[in-house]
Design a protein that fits this description.
The protein has about 250 residues and is of the alpha+beta class. Helix content is about 25%, strand content about 30%. The strands form two sheets. Strands 1, 2, 3, 5, 6, 7, 8, 11 and 12 form a nine-stranded mixed beta sheet that branches. Strands 4-14-13-9-10 form a five-stranded mixed beta sheet, with no helix packed on it. α1 crosses α2. The relative contact order is 0.22.
Length: about 250
């Protein structure tokens, strides 16, 4: 397994919207997988993308059991992945996009591994994450999805609510979440699906990818199952107390 060659193959698959077959990468360990992920992001940074944050995967206990893992995984966010709230997501360059509702944290101070996540948070927002595996049919091994930057493709952030306005961040532990597609509920859930409390996901992000600098955006993980994202669709996520965030899909420029 050549990390640089696999990173190049994943990068090419994403840019050409042509999937790779899963299961044939030769990756066997998570350490190898993160090496490939770093090489993949290095290619993108060399083209001018800038890091903006971190995203987490497998924050659902059910998903961990399904994949046979006992820990979370993480990927990286960049400025070219951000979609304005109410803006347009061009899905023509994606392979088989899906979308899921999340909550996002904005750090106002450095968060070190083992540090107090609540003390580092400046604000919280509803979020949407667009995912798009570069493996055919979303079929992959655990190391392969890590190498593929945890299927990250895009994200949209709703309005930021200052942490001090929430009466304590423990109030985030069980907020209702609704994902609507073209005005109709597609999924409903709770922020409790994110490790029982999204702050635990933030602490895990620091442990796995930290230290995290002030200004970092952290997507804490999905609050419901992901749904397909075809062109010509309006999607909105609403999180109790935090508000809503939406986007419209299209094709081409």
């Amino acid at each position: 397994m050549d990390p640089a060659a696999l990173a190049e193959a994943l990068d090419t698959a994403a840019r050409a919207a042509r999937p790779l077959p899963g299961g044939g990468s030769g990756l066997t360990t998570t350490a190898e997988a993160y090496t490939v992920q770093e090489a993949l992001l290095a290619r993108r940074f060399a083209r001018g993308e800038r890091p903006t944050g971190v995203k987490l995967g497998f924050t659902s206990a059910a998903k961990m059991r399904q994949m046979g893992v006992s820990d979370l995984i993480h990927g990286r966010l960049t400025d070219r992945m951000e979609i304005p709230d109410g803006g347009r997501c061009d899905v023509s360059g994606l392979i088989h996009p899906r979308i899921e509702p999340e909550i996002a944290f904005l750090l106002g101070a450095v968060l070190t591994p083992g540090g107090d996540p609540a003390a580092a948070v400046a604000a919280v927002a509803p979020a949407l994450e667009v995912i798009d595996s570069r493996y055919d049919g979303f079929r992959f091994s655990l190391p392969e999805v890590i190498a593929d930057n945890t299927s990250a493709a895009g994200y949209a952030l709703g309005p930021w609510t200052p942490a001090g306005a929430l009466g304590g961040l423990r109030s985030l532990a069980d907020l209702g979440v609704v994902l609507e597609v073209d005005g109709r509920p597609a999924e409903t859930g709770s922020t409790a699906a994110i490790l029982g409390d999204p702050l635990r996901a933030l602490a895990a992000a620091a442990r796995l990818a930290g230290p995290l600098a002030a200004g970092t955006v952290v997507l804490a993980g999905a609050a419901t199952a992901a749904v397909p994202l075809p062109p010509g669709t309006y999607v909105r996520a609403t999180v109790a107390r935090l508000g809503s965030v939406g986007l419209t899909t299209g094709e081409g420029s």
